Amino acid sequence: MSPVEKAKVLQEALPYIREFHGKVFVIKYGGSAMTEDSLRESFAKDVVLLRYVGIKVVVVHGGGPQISRVLERFGIKTSFVGGMRRTDRETMHVVEMVLSGDINKDIVALINRHSGKNVYAVGLSGRDGKLIKAKKLDKERYFSKMGLPIPEEDVGYVGEVEEVNVDLLLSLLEGNYIPVIAPVGVGEEGEAYNINADLVASEIACSLKAEKLIFLTDTEGVKDKEGRLISTLTKEKVMKLIEGGVIRGGMIPKLVSALEALERGVSKVHIVDGRIPHSVLLEIFTEEGIGTEIVS
Predict the structure, then answer these.
(1) Nearest to 33 by CA among 65, 78, 9
(2) CA distance 209 to 25
(3) How far is residue 186's CA from residue 192's CA, in Å, rounded to a whole number?
(4) What per-residue string of b and e applies to 218-240 under the rule 16 or more CB within 10 Å gives b?
(5) Pair 163, 129: CB distance under 8 Å
(6) Which whole number is the average pLDDT over 98-118?
(7) For residues 223 and 220, what is the distance between their CA atoms, to the nearest angstrom?
(8) Domain boundaries, the chain
């Protein structure tokens, strides 16, 4: 790229930088972007850049494959109920160890390696400062909302968010910190709950009235029945795609969470291909974007 072309790229980004300065972005970090070294590096650099141009960033991460590998190593059998990992006490111990310990601190270290003076990532579990108050998942309500059959099996320590400690997050954001959050909640008796990271990201975005909720995935975005990428979706279009069976599997919770977030004050939701380097910047700071945006 020539110097003139580079200058044009920066000029294209300027209106978006100006528009989003001081706003909150919540990013659900998962998939290949968490596991491939080059993608991890580009994600960390993107997050630091967003913070330096005045955007307040909150990162919520998953870790399903890593949890499965550790459970297998310990000889603990794992099973899934309607796509949710059945979480007994022994499994919950491993889930928290992997999410709040290994993965969370690794992401924090990665971001901090690329940050400079006065901007730092800080790792949090939902149990820290009662950041995420949780209760056992109401499976009847949850699976009905997702349009899925209600399983008979008990899900164990799978939870849902009751309340987010907004004051804690705002204090960190105002102090130039980048909160990196493991999706583990705390119940009334101090017990830990395993919560779907998409749902945690959505609840945090709603609580902060975020400008954007961004899901990094291993797909280009949402596609129509012919397999073509849909650049913009509304609630009506999303419901038609779900009812028509075009949207299936793990994309359903993301889109249901997206619609709820829009109804509760989030300005826009993006589903972006995390396999593309610097995908967050390409989606946010270019006119055409690269993924699917969901608007109210």
Answers:
(1) 65
(2) 9
(3) 5
(4) ebbbbbeeeeeebeebeeeebbe
(5) no
(6) 92
(7) 8
(8) 3-290
Quick one: pLDDT at residue 170? 97
Q: 176-186 pLDDT, tens per residue? A: 999 999 999 99
Q: What is the pLDDT of residues 237-279, one digit of tens each?
A: 888 888 888 887 778 878 888 888 999 999 999 999 999 999 9
Give yes or no for residue 6 having a pLDDT over 70: no
Is residue 176 within 8 A of residue 51, CB to CB? The reply is yes
- Give the HSE-up count for residue 228: Cα atoms under 13 Å, Cβ half-sphere: 4
User: For the chain, what is the total number of helices (H) and then of strands (E)?
Assistant: 11, 14
**Three-state SS string across 32-58, please?**
HHHCCHHHHHHHHHHHHHHHHCCCEEE
Residue range 3-290, CATH number: 3.40.1160.10
**Is 88 strand, coil or helix?**
coil
pLDDT of residue 238: 87
The DSSP string of 202-226 is HHHHHHTT-SEEEEEESSSS-B-TT
Name the CA radius of gyration of the chain, rounded.
19
Tell me: pLDDT of 82 over 80.
Answer: no
Contact present, 28 and 216 (Cβ < 8 Å) = yes
Q: How far is it, in rounded angstroms, from Cα 32 to Cα 85? A: 20
The pair of structure tokens assigned to 93 is 């111990």
